[in-house]
Amino acid sequence: MADEPTGNLDEDTGQQIIELLFAGHQKRGTTLVLVTHDQSLAARCGRTVRLRSGHIVRRIMSIAALAPVRGNRWLPLQYALRELRGGLRGFYVFIACIALGSMAIAGVGSLAASLADGLARQGRVILGGDLAFTLIQREATPPELAFLNGQGKVSSAATMRAMARTPDGKATLVELKAVDSAYPLFGKVKLEPARPLADALAQRDGAFGAAADPVLLARLGVKPGARLTIGNAPIEIRAALGNEPDKLAGGIGFGPRLLVSEDALRATGLIQPGSLVRWLYRLRLPQSDANDAALKAVTTQAREQLPEAGWDVRNPTNASPQLERNVERFTQFLTIVGLTALLVGGVGVGNAVKSHLDRKREVIATMKALGASGRRVFAVYLTQVLLLALIGGVLGAVLGAVLPYAIAWTFGAIIPLPFIPAMHPAELGLAVVYALLTALAFALWPLGRAHDGPGGRVVPRRASPPSRAGRVKSTSRSLPRRCWLWQPSQYCSLTTGAWRSSTSRSQRWCSSPCASSPAY
């Protein structure tokens, strides 16, 4: 603000001062208010208000007002950072709401991605081979077995449900699994007490051996060494089944696992026409051919050479479709929960922004009175809201990234899934984007009020009109409390990006003292 800046200067010095003022205005993108009798100086301003006897007689907008001011691009960011220098007081609820929602989304996404990575890395172990060929209610024919044996090493297994009975009459449903001597092709079966799998399943002392799930032992109240009857075959439990590498490929079972040999299954007499037996043939290709192209080629040959086989062929990328579907549904559910939490937190975001703008009404009024447009005010505070939302979103994303590691450290020993925690930038970035969009959606309404409200209405009505009229002196200390907010926009030449006229209240308060002042 400059009142007759060249009045007491010689022409050369005055010109230097004027150039300095306009250069600073162009460099910093600020509003320059000049009071002058120099017509040539007034012509350089974007808007000119002419006074005569204390009254506005003419308003002029020059072509310069339509030209963009250089350096204005980063002004909203500069103003937003200046206001945040005082700290984050009043924004703790805002940041907490955004951080919690962002943490939920980032944590769920990272958890699902870690599970997907674990399934992908352990695909061959879960599948039990490079390729798995499944038949229902029938075994593979000799030509089909010949084709599979010609491609690599083959291991066969059969699964079905059966009733296991103890000598004292207890019975329970079991998931019976019969395997051959080549099982498993990938991974390792863990028995308790430790012993070779072939020795545990061998026929000895008039009974076939078996390895039982600890749940089965607890359900029947027996220990290793106890005998069961399945169909027509006597079964002796010789070990507890600690780890079954391809367990996840079978999906959800209706009973505990009982692992036996193929000879034991045939001895039960349960394999009859129409029995619900699932036969699985796992194929392990030579090490040099174990790549995606080789897997695809073998699958194509199997379907072309044996079109009547009707088998289901799976590879490591879809080792357990049912498990993958369950993980996907679980992820979708938790993502909806996270979005709901973020939206509920958005209510707190809207209230926090409204309270902040209420505290800044005097600042907004000052900016508008000095020529700032509603668009500029909106941009400043929108930038501030997005900066705070970015802080909350990044904080939540960091907490969400730690969540898979915390779960693995706490529950890794009891989770029956190939869970491999890792950083997933895409999921974390998506959580931050959701946080920014939520903050933007719930902040638009209070920001719109600040955009549309004129300066005279934004200022709180705590001030009362001056008790007596008097001359306005040239020093800012003697100006009326609110008068200075509107005087420049009424009585001065402006170089600014916007124009907003005074309210009737401001005219009533200021017309007498301002009009009587020679300085204005």
A few lines on this structure:
This protein has helices spanning about 10-30, 40-45, 75-85, 90-120, 125, 140-150, 195-200, 215-220, 260-270, 290-305, 320-360, 360-370, 375-410, 425-450, 455-460, 485-490, 505-515; strands at about 1-5, 30-35, 45-50, 55-60, 130-135, 155-165, 170-180, 190, 205, 205-210, 225-230, 235-245, 255-260, 280-285, 310-315, 495. It has about 525 residues and is an alpha+beta fold.
Describe it for me?
By secondary structure, this protein is of the alpha+beta class. The chain has helices at residues 11-28, 39-43, 75-83, 92-121, 123-127, 142-149, 197-201, 214-220, 262-268, 292-305, 321-359, 361-369, 374-411, 425-452, 455-458, 487-491, 504-515, and strands at residues 2-3, 32-35, 47-52, 55-61, 131-136, 153-165, 171-179, 190-192, 203-204, 207-212, 227-230, 233-243, 257-261, 278-284, 312-314, 493-495. Strands 5, 6, 7, 8, 9, 10, 11, 12, 13, 14 and 15 form an eleven-stranded mixed sheet that branches. A hairpin with a 2-residue loop joins strand 9 and strand 10. The longest helix has 39 residues, at 321-359. The protein is elongated and about 125 Å long. The two termini are 13 Å apart. 34% of the residues are buried.
